[in-house]
Design a protein that fits this description.
By secondary structure, the protein is an all-alpha fold. Helix content is 47%, strand content 0%. The protein has one domain.
């Protein structure tokens, strides 16, 4: 799923609340320090720094564009252990997976 051809990015202000409806999702404390990316054994650069911002800003199409990264996460919690502000990254990833399963796959 890509942005419209004219470069307009569609936003849904309630996306973060919708993602968190059935699962815990809270990324507002993320300060974009990059520690999570540095310690990720999969080398996933999009998670969580940019991805969580997409959710908080309601940029659902960009979230769906990162589905491969979301499902590549091992949920090993190395990022959580090293996060200086204690963001529950693995729970956020689980919530995003649940959201994608509901919206894209109808599960």
């Amino acid at each position: 799923m890509n942005a419209p051809a004219d470069g307009v990015i569609l936003v849904r202000p309630g996306l973060a609340a919708e993602v968190g409806t059935h699962d815990e999702f809270d990324a507002s404390a993320c300060m974009n320090c990059g520690v999570c990316t540095a310690v990720c054994p999969m080398g996933i650069e999009i998670l969580p720094r940019r991805l969580f911002r997409y959710v908080l800003l309601g940029m659902e199409e960009q979230v769906f564009d990162e589905t491969e990264s979301i499902y590549s996460c091992l949920l090993c919690k190395m990022c959580e252990v090293n996060c200086p502000v204690g963001v529950h990254i693995a729970e956020n990833v689980r919530a995003l997976r649940h959201h994608i399963n509901r919206k894209v796959f109808g599960l």
